[in-house]
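hiii, so i know i said id send this last week but things got crazy w the move. better late than never?? heres the sequnce for the chain we talked about at the cafe, plus the structure i predicted for it. fair warning i was half asleep when i ran it
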Amino acid sequence: THLNKNLSSVALIPARCGSKRIKDKNIKLLNEHPLIAYTISAAINSGIFEDIIVSTDSVVYKEIAEYYGASILSLRPKEYSGDNSPDIDWIRYTLNELETKGKKYDLFSILRPSSPFRRSETIKRALNAFLEFEGADSIRAVEMCSQHPAKMWYVKEKNMTPVLVGDNNGVPWHSCQFISLPEIYVQNASLEIAKTSVIFEKDSISGDIIIPFITEGYEGFDINHPYDWEYATYLINQKMAQLPLVQNPTSEINR
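okay and structure toks below
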């Protein structure tokens, strides 16, 4: 049976305050609003979530997220906020916390603030693709990779070995023309949608059957480095990429 269209879903937006490469990236102003505002607004405008929850370890981030229409339960504990903390830890913690408030959901979606050009239409398209695929545990945003793993190497001390071992019709993968290599996709930060049961039954955020959501244009664009920030600004100014509409705020946030 296809998944029921009336499944309840929650948007989970992770926003730690400890970004290293761009200080306070999640609340830095892009155009007129803090970066996180665009992800919150895309989630609100999609109309598919019962709740939009920001998971943060910062009081400042909490206030900004609430101003833009998201909910925060409690600040994320330190043990789930480190650089090496896996996603499943804070997601399980958040879903459990919601359950203590009587809120259970069939689906959750991870929407990372570093992806400002993912719009409400993107989220709806992904949900529809997920609902139409029988038996899927999750759907994850991917795009065609520009740097192929066939051309990648492990470097150990002074020598190196290819990541992709074996050959393609007798030719080592790393010596093949790009055009002859199989299409490989890389995940981006745009979105993931999964059944909440995979967290508790499979101890996983994606389960076993993961289907691809191939992003279009700049939907999967991810801001990680100062260069990405500059490029995002360029894309906006050149009207090459479109930010989600930010609805409610009219006044400046009191910083």
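btw Confidence is low (pLDDT under 50) at residues 250-255. thought thatd interest u
miss u guys!!
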